[in-house]
Specification:
Length: about 230
Amino acid sequence: MSRWKLAQEYERNWWLNKAETIYLEFYKNFAVEIIDLLKPYIEIQKETKILEIGSGAAGIITHLPSDYRFAIDPLEDFYASIPRYKNYRDKKVFYQTALGESLPFKSEQFDLIIMDNVLDHCDNPTQVLNEMKRVLKKNGILYFRQNTYHLWGRMIRNIMEFFLIDKGHPHTFAKKNLDKIFNQFGFKILYKNRDGYFATWKWEIKSKRLIDKIKAILLVNRDKYTLVLKKSE
């Protein structure tokens, strides 16, 4: 089984096990935050064309006020087969099974793309960025959020990856790497923010899960990095 397929199987099983218990309103909370954050850069209106890459069970997009909303995920067939996930969704959103590496849309179609903690799940992150740039309109906005790690954290995660301890995340990123990559792809950073490593460490050390406590002890703590970018080329 390929590394990416292994990650997808892990993701599928995680969402299957959480189907009856997960608090889906977190999507709504994220949507409220994003709408407010994006106001200086784009005001989401009914005619705003939006794409969410890696929408998962429902996606942030289900709570955005637009009549032109599209969502893709390689596991879409699975998510749509779970009644609780399907019933939670806004039926006006067009969900589609597809890969970020090969988006089934024409070039320069979207005003806004949302990608929330997805790039580390992908098979080929470079190709995903190529495709995002292709389908985003000139001066279009990209909302991007990703877990990142410091040098020590990346070293430990590389060891974890060698032994396939964290099956769901084939890739590990640092903030500086992401800044450099987006600059190379012709994106201008309009806004950046980080939650900080300590907040994650504090949560994990108090967690009841053994794996979380181990991460805290080993200082393999993630920092959630948020970017708002504009396609400038």
